[in-house]
Design a protein that fits this description.
Catalytic activity: L-seryl-[protein] + ATP = O-phospho-L-seryl-[protein] + ADP + H(+); L-threonyl-[protein] + ATP = O-phospho-L-threonyl-[protein] + ADP + H(+)
EC number: 2.7.11.1
Largest sheet: 5 strands, antiparallel
Distance between the termini: 28 Å
Number of strands: 9
Mean pLDDT: 84
Helix content: 25-40%
Family: Belongs to the protein kinase superfamily. Ser/Thr protein kinase family. CDPK subfamily.
Low-confidence stretches: 315-340
CATH architecture of the largest domain: Orthogonal Bundle
Cofactor: Mg(2+)
Radius of gyration: 21 Å
Number of domains: 2
CATH topology of the largest domain: Transferase(Phosphotransferase), domain 1
Number of helices: 12
Protein name: non-specific serine/threonine protein kinase
Strand content: 5-15%
Length: 340
């Protein structure tokens, strides 16, 4: 007789050593809801003994498939390994009768882009400093053969509300370890506009997909709008696969040539020619002392519009999974291969 979904869940969980051997309520008082997802809610929680404020992500098991649980366990195992000042810290994980609960570091500064659009003065140097930190944390998990696969503005969070707050990289839900004995990853996943050409083509890929995403983020930070944009997803994907983007005037007139060179390197269509995070950290734009301090008024204005549009569409532009990629690309991108 075939095992039920619940029995398969139980077997997976029994094999996993990541879960705490008790209920979360024994250690935490759950507070108000601070976020909601399709299958989860995030609450503020307080540790009963230490009074430390944490975030508790509660994921309903009823909505999960066996594949979802396997992916969840992978995410947890990756996060448990991460120990970096720019990565959200995972403290504990609980498997309760009807839900999984992840206890993580609590951050209250909001998203990085929200902070930037509130600024009255914004310069190329400030953008460079953000990108440098993002490359440093990316180099850290790439050294462990881990690919994030969903780097985007929504996943860059600030710890505090102060202007110089440290950011934390969040959401390792698509993170995957690369087996160095294999050819690479093939699953098509990510977010439209930030996904690399090789992912769309269905070919094997590696850490370079994260570099491409950082290239997109850097472009947006410097001009306020994305390098690849089209409401028609098929046309968007075609532009991404061709690497078609422009440094438009007047928005790029005040931006240095070294910054443009830096972006071109990251948005190289041929992944084998795309520099690693370690190499990019040695780029002149990152190491140079003469990065522009001119007020980027046009970029700030564009970024405010982009940020408002991004938030408006957040509910409808969900992170795409393999099937969504294939549905969106099957007619106009015939070479996209099935994922595994």
């Amino acid at each position: 007789m075939a095992a039920t979904k619940e029995e398969k869940f139980a077997a997976l969980i029994a094999e996993c050593t990541l879960f705490e051997p008790c209920l979360s309520k024994e250690h935490y008082d759950m507070g108000r809801v601070i976020g909601r997802g399709s299958f989860s809610v995030v609450r503020v929680a307080v540790h009963k003994e230490t009074k430390t404020k944490v975030a508790a992500k509660c994921i309903r098991k009823a909505n999960l498939s066996i594949v979802d649980v396997q992916a969840f366990i992978t995410e947890v195992s990756v996060l448990k390994e991460m120990d970096h000042p720019n990565i959200i810290k995972l403290y504990e994980v609980y498997s309760e009768p009807d839900q999984f609960i992840l206890i993580t570091e609590f951050v209250e500064g909001g998203e990085l882009f929200d902070r930037i659009v509130d600024k009255t003065c914004y310069t190329e140097r400030e953008a460079r400093d953000v990108v440098k930190s993002l490359l440093q944390v990316t180099a850290y998990f790439h050294a462990a053969n881990i690919v994030h696969r969903d780097l985007k503005p929504e996943n860059i969070l600030l710890v505090h509300r102060e202007d110089d707050a440290v950011f934390k990289l969040a959401d390792f839900g698509f993170a995957k370890r690369i087996d160095v004995s294999q050819d690479g990853l093939v699953t098509q996943c990510g977010t439209p506009g930030y996904v690399a050409p090789e992912v769309l083509r269905g070919t094997s890929y590696g850490t370079g997909v994260d570099i491409w995403s950082i290239g997109v983020i850097t472009y947006i930070l410097l001009c306020g709008y994305p390098p690849f944009h089209n409401e028609n997803r098929n046309l968007l994907f075609q532009a991404v696969k061709k690497g078609e983007f422009t440094f438009h005037s007047p928005y790029w007139d005040e931006i240095s040539e070294t910054a443009k060179s830096f972006i071109r390197a990251m948005l190289t269509v041929d992944a084998s020619k795309r520099p690693s995070a370690v190499v990019l950290l040695e780029h002149e734009w990152i190491t140079g002392r003469n990065v522009g301090t001119v007020q980027l008024s046009d970029a700030l204005k564009q970024l405010r519009q982009f940020n408002a549009h991004r938030r408006f569409k957040a509910a409808s532009i969900a992170v795409m999974t393999s099937n969504a990629f294939k549905r969106s690309s099957s007619k106009e991108i015939p070479e996209a291969a099935p994922s595994t």
